[in-house]
Design goal:
With 466 residues, this protein is an alpha/beta fold. The protein is 50% helix and 11% strand. Strand 3, helix 5 and strand 4 form a beta-alpha-beta unit. Pfam families: Bac_transf.
Length: 466
């Protein structure tokens, strides 16, 4: 895995993305070359603009493919992967984006003949690149061989996660090294034994291991810290369980988390530059969303009024930055008497209190659009943890460890937890979402904000997540 702006990115996805960017740029130049071989073709585009045009084309297609989920790979499906069915919709979305780009900057326009050739060559190139990629993945080139130090519950959980991690890369588990003080929770035939005179380094070399995952709950007494250091000095990667979970799930697991790992583990960037860049990102995204969605917002307000009367908007107290309350603005999606008893209730997936128009706008995320005004006021960010109601926050702080950490940054209209997890209607769901929120709070960056923005578009298109 690569780490870009504190966010873990699969090397395989990075390589695939790099190759496909080259394919798209090459397709732009190949299309222009083929078209201009025709003596009756129009004059060549200005060369000083053509590279910018090619970059705009590649960026539009990569953005569209990302929004369609084409970079969420699953090796178990291989060439049966449905992403090939998303190739043409991705190119259609890219065409719409390019049309807007060419309208804003007409000097970048390819011309119809060149553009058609570019799209045909690019689609063929992407299709061929994916076939080669998935065929290559069957040859075990992408496997990492690992050993788990430990044989208890934590080691069992880590190994189960490694066996399920077939989306971005594969793991070949060489075995487990049991710690005498731990309860054995893994099969006995998977245990690796150190012979007299052998070291952990020699064992790693014997099994051609590239990584050791330290999955021991209690590290007191008999913990081979010196041997782990020797392994690291010999080029074998040493990873603790918390980092392994963070890397593989893009969560921070709170049940096996040591507070010292949060304190000394890095991340939690709250520098002036980060705050300045995030505020700029918030204002730009919110302005674009407001301009593009204004007709939709006006129509939504009218439909809500016709179905259930006034008020159209709904103000609700939420907990924001530094645990300070504020009022979030949303389109009203429930009946006026939704909480007539006066006691707050968790919102359920098929909540009977939701109106007909409310059901649609919740599924399409239209009910969240008025929150752009909260962003303009500085109460929210475009990307951040979902703000919760004070009534539920008081309950969750009591039962969910580290819940208050999510209030160290501004809440968001969309967020890492919303695009990664489904509807939350219980304390258990809140725990799962918190683990994603902690990951975002720890690793938040402009790069991660852009990824959340792309995933949000995918969620809206496929009506998944929350």
């Amino acid at each position: 895995m690569l780490k870009i702006s504190n966010h873990y990115v699969s090397k395989i996805v990075f390589v695939l993305l790099f190759v496909e960017v080259l394919v798209l740029l090459g397709a732009a130049y190949a299309g222009a070359a083929v078209r201009l071989l025709d003596p009756g073709a129009p004059a060549a585009p200005h060369l000083e603009h053509f590279f910018t045009s090619a970059v705009a084309f590649a960026s539009a297609i990569i953005f569209s493919m990302s929004a369609m989920g084409m970079y969420q790979l699953n090796f178990s499906e291989g060439l049966r992967n449905p992403f090939f069915l998303k190739l043409m919709p991705s190119f259609l979305m890219g065409f719409v984006i390019l049309t807007l780009v060419f309208y804003i900057a007409p000097e970048l326009y390819f011309g119809r003949g060149i553009l058609l050739l570019v799209f045909l060559i690019a689609a063929s190139g992407i299709f061929l690149a994916r076939i080669i990629f998935f065929k290559t993945s069957e040859q075990r080139f992408f496997e990492s061989r690992i050993i788990f130090l430990g044989g208890g519950p934590l080691a069992k959980e880590c190994s189960d996660l490694a066996e399920q991690s077939n989306k971005y890369h594969k793991y070949d588990i060489a075995g487990f090294i049991a710690i005498p003080s731990e309860e054995l929770c893994v099969p006995a035939d998977t245990l690796l034994k150190l012979r007299d005179g052998d070291s952990l380094v020699s064992l790693a070399n014997q099994y051609n291991v590239t990584e050791i995952v330290v999955s021991v709950q209690n590290r007191r007494g008999g913990f081979p810290i010196k041997e782990l250091l020797d392994c690291k000095l010999q080029g074998v990667k040493v990873t603790d369980a918390a980092t392994f979970f963070e890397r593989e799930t893009c969560q921070i697991r709170v049940d096996s988390l040591q507070p010292s790992w949060l304190v000394f583990g890095g991340g939690f960037d709250q520098s002036f530059i980060r705050i300045f860049m995030k505020r700029g990102f918030d204002l730009i995204c919110s302005t674009i969303i407001l301009v593009l969605s204004l007709p939709v917002m006006l129509l939504t307000a009218l439909l809500i009024y016709l179905e259930d009367g006034a008020p159209v908007f709904y103000l609700q107290e939420r907990v924001g930055l530094d645990s300070k309350p504020f009022n979030v603005l949303k389109f009203r999606s429930m009946r006026n008497d939704a909480e007539k008893g006066g006691k707050p209730q968790w919102a359920a997936q098929n909540d009977p209190r939701v109106t007909r128009i409310g059901k649609f706008i919740r599924r399409a995320r239209i009910d969240e659009l008025p929150q752009v005004f909260n962003v303009f006021k500085g109460e929210m960010s475009f990307v951040g943890p979902r703000p919760e109601r004070p009534y539920f926050v008081e309950q969750l702080i009591e039962v969910v460890p580290y819940y208050n950490v999510r209030h160290s940054i501004k809440p968001g209209i969309t967020g890492w937890a919303q695009v990664r997890y489904g509807y939350g209607s219980s304390a258990e769901d809140a725990l799962q979402k918190l683990q994603y929120d902690l990951y975002y709070v720890k690793n938040n960056s402009l790069f991660l904000d852009i990824l959340v923005l792309i995933d949000t578009l995918k969620v809206v298109l496929f009506r998944s997540g929350r």
